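Supplementary Note 3. Input sequence used for the single-chain structure prediction.
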Amino acid sequence: MRDKIRQFMAGRYGTDALNQFLSVVAIVLLLISLVTRWGIFTWLGLAALVYCYFRTFSRNISRRTEENYRFYNLKERVTGKFQGVKRRWDDRKTYRYFRCPQCHQMLRVPKGRGRIEISCPRCGTQFIRKS
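The predicted structure, written as discrete structure tokens, is reproduced below.
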């Protein structure tokens, strides 16, 4: 039996992080549909599950790898935003954050220094702000 499954999956994509995410989303949507009794959540959950299985059994490995790569990029952007907000919250008593007016780079300066001239390390723009 194991050999038959192994032969069937040979040359197919299998599972990855995007498939795991789709599986969790499908389960959550189906649970929401059970609680709320709204049919839209059932259909969305089933669509996520069907797409997950489609990706698992697909033979177009390069396309599925590209989709997973785009998922990781999106995931990094979202988690990066939350990590930045968390870091700013943790540092709120000792540092102030400013954006460079030229290149919009986030700059961190120590609090309590009065009016200081800030130089952006990326573009070299200098501006004055109160810390």
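The chain has two domains: 1-90, 91-131. The longest strand covers residues 95-99.
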